[in-house]
Amino acid sequence: MQPKSPGLTRKNVDPNPFKQFEQWFQAASEAEPVLPEAVSLATATREGRLSSRMVLLKDFDETGFVFYTNYESRKGIELAENPNAALVFYWRQLERQICITGTVSRVSREESEAYFRTRPRGSQIGALTSPQSQVVASREVLERRFQQLMAEYEGREIPLPSYWGGYRLSPDTIEFWQGRSDRLHDRFLYKRQSGGPWQLERLSP
Ligand SMILES: Cc1cc2nc3c(=O)[nH]c(=O)nc-3n(C[C@H](O)[C@H](O)[C@H](O)COP(=O)(O)O)c2cc1C
């Protein structure tokens, strides 16, 4: 199969991984028909038992990658006891993958509040309705609670739940993978030691 994207080389890879991410994210936003911002998030317990799931990237800049969720969900509980996490993006149309590792911290309440206000009312009520990751007796229980809350907040602003908000993953490694022919893919790994400059290495595919 012909590669759909040009290869990555020392010459065309940006020395700043966030700029490189921005270029690829922009390209993915144009090329991927569905949810280019969908990303796999892996977390682990204190003992290192892993779990992973998809979330949506809502913001990024040189301080990190932001997603929103329920702080009392399984991922929230794991992140409270172990802040190490990993993200994987996969963009099929471009044959690209980005793997990110780092540590996570909560965004400010102001930042969560500002994002929560941009969400549709139904999603706001949904966040209030669902004790994410807990066992629920039936779908009807959820739907009843949703309708109750809809009625309760009619004509009023829906408050940001105390247990809901954003996390920012501050990266210590970011790897860019470009699919190439004959399995000779390009891989460039950026590594940062305790907030210092980024080192860039080519990895074998
Ligand atoms: C494409 C996609 C995007 C998702 N985005 C989010 C998200 O941004 N935040 C979230 O809490 N859950 C999101 N989910 C649901 C999660 O994958 C997961 O089911 C939920 O967060 C509970 O995970 P946990 O029990 O491991 O904490 C998404 C699921 C899919 C398939």
Total domain modules: 1
Q: Give the biggest sheet.
A: 9 strands, antiparallel
Report the strand count.
9
Listed once per kind, the bound small molecules are: flavin mononucleotide
List keywords for this structure.
5 helices, alpha+beta, 205 residues, Pnp Oxidase, Chain A, nine-stranded antiparallel beta sheet, binds flavin mononucleotide, elongated, 9 strands
Describe this structure in a few short sentences:
With 205 residues, the protein is α+β, with helices and mostly antiparallel strands. It has five helices and nine strands, in the order αββββαββαααβββ. It has one domain (17-119, 162-203): Roll (Pnp Oxidase, Chain A).
Strands, helices and their partners?
Elements: H1 17-31, E1 38-44, E2 50-56, E3 59-61, E4 64-70, H2 74-81, E5 84-91, E6 96-106, H3 109-118, H4 121-129, H5 139-152, E7 164-178, E8 186-192, E9 198-203
Helix pairs in contact: 4-5
The structure holds flavin mononucleotide (FMN).
Flavin mononucleotide (FMN) is lined by residues 35, 38, 51, 53-56, 67-70, 73-75, 132-133.
